[in-house]
């Protein structure tokens, strides 16, 4: 694998750290600014919404900029956002800093996926994408716990200063190691937008929303679930999240390896197994050892879907994949927000802290159904209406004009 992938992974590590570390520092931030913890939660919500909006926006703005230069500009934006957060005099300014940093997130992973895939042979593309995403998964194992520890003992402002420094390292790595890739000829915004007319691209994005949403339906509420149901102490939640992160690292690498060999079968296995494991979590959450094993499996199976889904989007949006790739990153965050909201609804309805696991299992199962539909559609070589028409009582396909 080229050294350029290491530079992309370092940038991904910084982005992953800043996205998730705030969850462990909300009490300290809320106390310093004199706001409630739920109000401080806007720092999480604002970041997620910034990713969803920023992914297509920044990618569109960068359509006329060479990809290496755009990656450097995005890392610069990330550094500025974290520095603003580190020195924010009032809460509102911190929210602004978080949003600035989030605008770089989706476009960095979207453009970075395209660049990573172009750096290697065709049969190694998913592995290259997985290597870049390793930075994001390792952030959950190392960056987030370490950033939380620094924030709790030295101050949360120091944490964001360190993250900004990581951004500087990532920027330097990209400048030094990523080659100047020629901008595709005759690819304009209209070509990028045309990818969204492809049903396969839309199905892959829907699988992203539902599949990864299934993971976060459970993980969002892991703290109350593990302390109230499994009987873990409050301090154990950090290490359970590390376990989840280790699962993510392994699943990401496995998903990248096997997606290059058999992409759709890899999705069938990972999504099907994820649905089963999430459903079983309703039972295993009552036992400490079983719960810990299940959490690691959820991380592994959930992130095993990421390289194949990202590669699926790149393959189906061939020729103009950058915008579709970036929007698919936003789809991950949309799935996170949707599943967290649905999980909160079932808890509020009185179904208990394990109820979000059923929500997650349902979402993952729905993603599996879409994966099967996508394969059927691809084999028949038609549109979605072609597949539906094939199931009419007459057994005859309705003519479809392309």
From TrEMBL:
Where's it mainly located?
membrane
Which PROSITE patterns does the annotation name?
A: MFS (PS50850)
Domain Major facilitator superfamily (MFS) profile as annotated: residue spans:
4-382
Keywords recorded for this protein, A-Z: Cell membrane, Membrane, Transmembrane, Transmembrane helix
Q: Which Pfam families match?
A: MFS_1
A single GO CC term, please?
plasma membrane
Q: Which Gene3D superfamilies does this entry report, sorted A to Z? A: MFS general substrate transporter like domains
Ranges annotated as spanning the membrane: 42-61, 73-96, 102-121, 128-150, 156-178, 199-224, 236-254, 266-283, 289-309, 330-352, 358-377
An annotated Gene Ontology molecular function: transmembrane transporter activity
Fetch the InterPro entries from UniProt: MFS (IPR011701), MFS_dom (IPR020846), MFS_Efflux_Transporters (IPR050189), MFS_trans_sf (IPR036259)
Q: How does it sit in the membrane?
A: Multi-pass membrane protein
Membrane listed as a keyword: yes
Give the domain of life. Bacteria
Give the protein name, as stated in the record.
MFS transporter
């Amino acid at each position: 694998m080229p050294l350029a992938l290491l530079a992309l992974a370092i940038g991904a590590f910084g982005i992953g750290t800043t996205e998730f570390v705030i969850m462990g520092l909300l009490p300290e931030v809320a106390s310093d600014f004199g706001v409630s913890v739920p109000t401080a939660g806007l720092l999480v919500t604002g970041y997620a919404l910034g990713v969803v909006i920023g992914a297509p926006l920044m990618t569109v703005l960068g359509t006329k900029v060479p990809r290496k230069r755009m990656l450097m500009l995005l890392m610069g934006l990330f550094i500025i956002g974290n520095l603003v957060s580190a020195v924010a005099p009032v809460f509102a300014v911190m929210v602004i800093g978080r949003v600035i940093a989030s605008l770089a997130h989706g476009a960095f992973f979207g453009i970075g996926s395209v660049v990573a895939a172009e750096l290697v042979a065709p049969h190694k593309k998913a592995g290259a994408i997985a290597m870049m995403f390793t930075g994001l998964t390792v952030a959950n194992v190392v960056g987030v716990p370490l950033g939380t520890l620094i924030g709790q003992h030295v101050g949360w402002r120091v944490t964001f200063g360190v993250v900004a420094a990581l951004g500087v390292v990532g920027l330097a790595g990209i400048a030094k190691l990523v080659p100047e890739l020629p901008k595709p000829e005759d690819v304009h915004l209209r070509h990028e937008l045309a990818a969204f007319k492809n049903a396969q691209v839309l199905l892959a994005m829907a699988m992203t929303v539902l599949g990864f949403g299934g993971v976060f339906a459970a993980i969002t509420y892991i703290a109350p679930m593990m302390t109230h149901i499994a009987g873990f102490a409050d301090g154990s939640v950090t290490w359970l999240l590390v376990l989840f992160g280790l699962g993510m690292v392994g699943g990401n690498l496995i998903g990248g390896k096997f997606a290059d060999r058999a992409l759709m079968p890899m999705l069938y296995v990972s999504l099907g197994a994820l649905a089963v494991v999430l459903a079983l979590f309703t039972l295993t959450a009552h036992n400490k050892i079983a719960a810990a094993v299940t959490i690691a499996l959820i991380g592994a199976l959930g992130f095993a879907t990421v390289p194949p889904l990202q590669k699926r989007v790149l393959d189906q949006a061939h020729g103009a994949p950058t915008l579709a790739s970036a929007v698919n990153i936003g789809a991950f965050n949309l799935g996170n927000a949707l599943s967290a909201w649905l999980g909160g609804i079932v808890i509020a309805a009185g179904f208990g802290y394990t109820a979000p696991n059923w929500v997650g299992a349902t979402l993952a199962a729905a993603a599996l159904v879409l994966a099967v539909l996508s394969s059927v559609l691809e084999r028949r070589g038609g549109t979605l209406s072609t597949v539906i028409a094939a199931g009419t009582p007459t057994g005859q396909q309705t003519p479809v004009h392309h």
